[in-house]
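Weekly sync, protein design subgroup
Attendees: M.S., D.O., the rotation student, P.L. (late)

Item 1: inverse folding check
M.S. brought a backbone from last month's batch and wanted to see whether the design step gives back something sensible before we order anything. D.O. pointed out we never logged the input encoding, so this time it goes straight into the notes. Structure tokens as presented (92 positions):
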């Protein structure tokens, strides 16, 4: 199955524009609850710089775990569940 997706930015509850992103829920064996993260597009640099969620993260390395990079067949984002390169996950 092939999916085509166009992400657009929109205003947050506080009126600031959010960068184009996709919210992801991850379910896996060994996880008691799902984990939730966001996929941002690395080639949307200007929008990402203004995004309030990305700006709230403590450092550049943390923000980098959410950036999908262009690849030959779309975008690539590796989700890491634990360790030094762990993807940022959100609590709702």
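Designed sequence read out in the meeting:
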């Amino acid at each position: 199955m092939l999916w085509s997706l166009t992400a657009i930015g929109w205003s947050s509850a506080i009126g600031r524009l959010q960068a184009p992103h996709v919210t992801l829920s991850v379910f896996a064996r060994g996880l008691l609850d799902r984990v939730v993260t966001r996929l941002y597009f690395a080639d949307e640099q200007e929008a990402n710089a203004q995004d309030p969620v990305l700006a709230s993260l403590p450092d550049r390395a943390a923000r980098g775990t959410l950036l999908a990079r262009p690849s030959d067949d779309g975008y690539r984002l590796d989700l890491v569940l634990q360790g030094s390169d762990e993807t940022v996950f959100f609590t709702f």
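Discussion: The chain has a mean pLDDT of 87. DSSP finds three helices and six strands in the chain.
Action: P.L. to compare against the previous round before Friday.
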